[in-house]
Amino acid sequence: MRVLLTNDDGIQATGLHVMREALLARLPDVELAVIAPDSNRSASARSITTRQPLAVDEIRFGDGGSGFATDGTPVDCVRFAALGLVGDPPDLVVSGINHGSNLGDDVTYSGTVAAAFEGALLGIPAIAVSQQAEAGRTDFQPRGSAWEREEFEVGARFVAELVAMVDRLGLPPRTVLNVNVPAGPVRGVRACKLGRRIYRDELKLEGERPDGRRHYRIYGATPGYHEEPGTDFEAIDEGFLALTPLRFDLNDGEALARLGEFDLATVFQRALANRALTG
Fold this sequence. Notes:
Layout: E1 2-6, H1 14-26, E2 31-37, E3 56-60, E4 66-70, H2 74-82, E5 92-99, H3 111-121, E6 126-131, H4 153-169, E7 175-181, E8 188-191, E9 197-198, E10 204-208, E11 214-217, E12 224-225, H5 232-237, E13 240-247, H6 253-259, H7 264-278
Helix pairs in contact: 1-4, 2-3
């Protein structure tokens, strides 16, 4: 099985290397390729690089292995693999282990989850995995760079076993498994749904220059979440590893049906008439 390992924290991130070692140790037949950003790209979501060529460097690891670092985004990394940078396209994408959780609505901002979604969109099964920064803290802000290898061990071992199971059983098309690992002792694992965030960001003026240019801070407030049974927030709060299946499908069937009540032909005719009047 060919596996692509990527992340959004950068190719030197501790979580990526612990995940790499677990995959190699627990899956002896794996053909593992590593393509990751050359520096931190957290919260880059599904951004891609289209206006300039992408630089790629081969990086040697301490155990003699190697990977590729690019100045692109996590999604770019998956595209590189799919387009043949490391030979045949991967059979599965593993993105992580992220430094900090990716729970609930936060997945829409996450570069970690975006890389997994890119695999799913290309028909490649994908797993995103993230490690909670501190027990009792379910925001999306990692605590900084001081992460110990041991903090990622349980998540790495679990995902390695999950990879083997996905290889045997497969996943539904366009499905991503989003894994979040609680800080501290892990009591078990729960299959669950995404929870809903309560964002508390505020507009704060940080300073103003003599020329009138202002600097504002609009992110950073610790978010909350809606308490609801069966969610990834509940699982993490209770010390369980949260396994959430996600599907990339932006269609809204209910709204599409509602549009049938709209007189779209009249709207279109009025738009043409208005154009004639103003033209």
